[in-house]
Design brief:
Creatine Kinase, Chain A, domain 2, Four Helix Bundle (Hemerythrin (Met), subunit A), 3 domains, binds adenosine-5'-diphosphate, 18 strands, alpha+beta, about 725 residues, binds magnesium ion, 24 helices
Length: about 725
């Protein structure tokens, strides 16, 4: 659906309109609609179902959704029928199984509700079977070798834990049913299946720990709130930048005199045209039940952020995909382009996604929040320390989960968390853990346990003065903030990995506590012993200082922490023995599934760079060189003219030097392109995927800078009226 312009079949009035050039358009929706009046009006959630299903069926469905059990065929039929009636009442004629294949985007194939009748007419129908499963002809999605051509079938299966919704487009509304995408043998071919499995693994591991603490809970869920950064660029500029259009980033472009050095954009007043876009997009998201809450200007010019209220991880991932999808479409409506790429402009801050993550029980207890009593604080420390241990034990896997060609421009580029995975805890907790390590009780009395000061952890640890914005994995009071995720990412895989590594630590914790309980140690002593050991073993991953500094890079190397700066190197973290065995033992991904993902991501990296290389050569040949040649020609003619008329003029030399500069620039550019083309040809010839990716990384990519330097130098001297592409100052400052 990504290319449609959205319409307005239901909810508040929202007329599509285009704004030309720099005009800010009218606010398309009349003010005065209360959000609570139309929030989630296009969502088939439990609230909607309650009004449409018979009481008995509703209870069954609700129970199945909350406990994750299978729905009976009768109930599925009942839900399907209610869903169809509801969707048709909103004007939908088609439904689609909405899924998230390994491309990182969402995918859909629309099917009409119609069925033929014996008298030559049609009627609308939708059965439980059609709701539950479909077989899209989806053989072209990347499978990393999991599907051979003779068994290319992929199946989508309904995921009732994320509610169906109506997506409105100018072409009409469509019923979208969130599904998982698996092969004939049940192997995952998408981003959602492993996420759902990781949610379950974490649930089971956490419930086991909670049983010690006698905290009543039926379910523990992981929760996510993703702060999303993005740029907005006027569409007329975007359309004339083939690099932005096809690679998502500018491959060329001289730095403007003013970038972000004044830091006057951050939290500044929002420009009217941008504001119109934001309110329009938010309205569409509210209709879809996406609880967006915060909007503001970011550090770079024309960079912004949107953040939602956190939700259960599975739904939150779908909602983040919807945020990107809706922003993309509403931006078109406003004559703008929304950029989610990690680093669209060189020399200007890139965009990330801060994935806020926590664990909560169905009774609403946040397990990463300190409590009121010593017992609650001990429980809090168990979960906290397990998260630290998780990053320590599986730092490479965590790093692999955020690897992409786009994110390579951010991680380690002095503006985003570095490629070194570490944890920030804040001064108070760092001290608590240090005390814990030093002072675990030797005498097994309750008194001594309290002497550790565990009972004194303040219930509110949120303190804005104690903030470290440079850490890739920072504790922020009652949640962790995983900041290394790229802005264009589907959050599912990074979240899958966070869930997995923490579930792994919790399971180990249970084994270690049980062992001590068997040896008849009192419970609290057993827990403290294990905590002490974990803190000791994991502390090298804790860092409270400035993660952007060179000092930390050196210190981390001394501590033996990996610093994997490029995607081909980072991705290996996915297929290490430890990673595969963790994912396999938690039943999140089997060995073949992990390897298939590794190959898909590696191949994707090579393809990304191949596209960029081709684009760059194309831009130089068809835009930069013709402009430079025109300028050269004009200069040559002007100088010849001067020579003809005033052959001895003293300015001749200096004018010739301008011509010389242009001619030399053209020469250097041609030379750079030749070297790039050669490196590209070498990489293309290589068949082994890792070697190929490494060639792109270490041979092709460095030539980009070479070409760019020459092209940008020409941009700085060729007259504006001859330069064919929009410049940085236009894209970054004009809206
Ligand atoms: P801060 O400014 O301290 O980072 P905010 O309250 O502004 O915190 O939240 C930032 C993001 O973190 C929001 O998207 C929010 O939904 C999310 N968030 C807040 N609490 C939690 C939590 N317990 N679990 C997961 N995400 C959370
Ligand atoms: Mg934050």
């Amino acid at each position: 659906m990504a290319n449609h312009i959205m319409g307005r079949p239901s909810g508040p009035e929202a007329k599509p309109y285009h704004s030309n050039g720099h005009q800010s358009g009218p606010v398309p929706t009349p003010f005065g609609d209360k959000v609570s009046d139309y929030y989630a009006c296009n969502v088939f959630n439990l609230k909607t179902m309650k009004t449409l299903l018979p009481k008995e069926t509703f209870r069954h469905v609700e129970d199945a959704i909350l406990s994750g059990t299978q729905l009976s065929p009768e109930a599925a039929n009942s839900v399907a029928s209610a869903m169809k009636t509801w969707a048709m009442s909103k004007g939908a004629t088609h439904y689609t199984h909405w899924f998230q294949p390994m491309t990182g985007l969402t995918a859909e194939r629309h099917d009409s509700f119609i069925d033929l009748t014996s008298d030559g007419g049609v009627l609308e129908s939708f059965t439980g079977k059609q709701l539950a499963q479909a077989e899209p002809d989806a053989s072209s999605f990347p499978s990393g070798g999991l599907r051979t051509t003779f068994e290319a079938r992929g199946y989508t299966a309904w995921d009732p834990t994320s509610p169906a919704f109506i997506m409105e487009s100018l072409g009409g509304p469509t019923l979208c049913i969130p599904t998982v995408f698996v092969s004939y043998n049940g192997q995952s071919l998408d981003k959602k299946t492993p996420l759902l499995r990781s949610i379950e693994a974490l649930n089971l591991a956490a419930l086991d720990i909670l049983a010690y603490f006698k905290l009543p809970a039926r379910r523990v869920s992981s929760n996510m709130g993703a702060e999303q950064e993005y740029f907005l660029v006027d569409r007329s500029y975007y359309d004339r930048r083939p690099d932005l259009l096809m690679a998502g980033r500018t491959l060329l472009g001289a730095a403007p005199p003013k970038g972000q050095q004044l830091e006057d954009h951050y939290f500044g007043s929002i420009k009217e045209r941008v504001f119109c876009f934001m309110t329009d997009a938010e309205r569409e998201l509210y209709k879809l039940g996406v609880p967006v809450k915060t909007r503001h200007n970011e550090v770079a010019p024309n960079q912004f952020e949107v953040a939602p209220i956190h939700e259960e991880a599975n739904v939150a991932v779908d909602h983040n995909q919807l945020v990107m999808d809706v922003f993309d479409r509403v931006a078109r409506r406003h004559g703008l382009a929304a950029l989610f790429y990690e680093k669209p402009f060189a020399g200007i801050n890139g965009s990330g996604k801060h994935v806020n993550w926590s664990l909560g029980t169905d009774a609403g207890v946040n397990l990463l929040a300190p409590g009121e009593t010593p017992d609650e604080n001990l429980r809090f420390l168990v979960f906290l320390v397990c998260a630290v241990k998780a990053v320590h034990d599986h730092g490479k896997l965590l790093r692999a989960s955020v690897a992409s060609s786009g994110n390579d421009h951010r991680l380690g580029a002095n503006e985003a968390p570095p490629a070194i995975m570490s944890v920030f805890l804040g001064e108070y907790l760092a001290k608590v853990l240090a005390d814990l390590e030093r002072g675990a009780p030797t005498k097994e009395t309750d008194k001594e346990w309290l002497d550790l000061g565990i009972d004194k952890i303040p219930p509110v640890l949120k303190d804005n003065t104690d903030r470290n914005r440079t850490s890739p994995f920072a504790f922020t009071g009652n949640k962790f903030e995983f900041r290394a995720v790229g802005s264009s990412f589907n959050c599912a895989f990074p979240l899958t990995v966070v869930n997995a590594i923490v579930a792994g630590s919790l399971r180990q914790m249970k084994r270690d506590i049980d062992e001590r309980l068997k040896a008849r140690k009192p419970f609290k002593v057993a827990v403290l012993e294990v905590l002490k050991r974990y803190v000791k073993e994991s502390k090298k991953v804790c860092y409270e200082g400035n993660n952007y500094s060179g000092e930390w890079e050196k210190e981390a190397a001394k501590r033996g922490l990996p610093n994997l700066k490029t995607t081909p190197e980072a991705l290996e973290g996915l297929v290490t023995r430890e990673s595969v065995s963790l994912l396999e033992s938690l039943k999140i991904l089997g060995r073949d599934e992990v390897h298939s993902r590794y190959h898909i991501l590696l191949e994707r990296y090579s393809k990304d760079l191949d596209i960029e290389a081709r684009l760059l050569i194309d831009l130089v040949d068809t835009q930069v060189l013709p402009a430079a040649f025109s300028y050269q020609k004009g200069l040559a003619e002007a100088i010849r003219g001067l020579k003809d008329i005033l052959p001895k003029h003293s300015a001749l030399r200096s004018q010739e030097s301008v011509l010389d500069e242009v001619a030399a620039g053209i020469g250097a550019l041609r030379e750079g392109v030749a070297r790039l083309a050669k490196a590209m040809a070498d990489a293309e010839r290589e068949a082994e995927p890792l070697k190929k990716a490494l060639l792109y990384c270490h041979q092709v990519k460095p030539k980009f800078a070479l070409v760019r330097r020459s092209a940008d130098a020409l941009e700085a001297i060729v007259p504006d009226n001859l330069w064919p592409m929009p410049k940085y100052h236009e894209m970054l400052f004009l809206i």
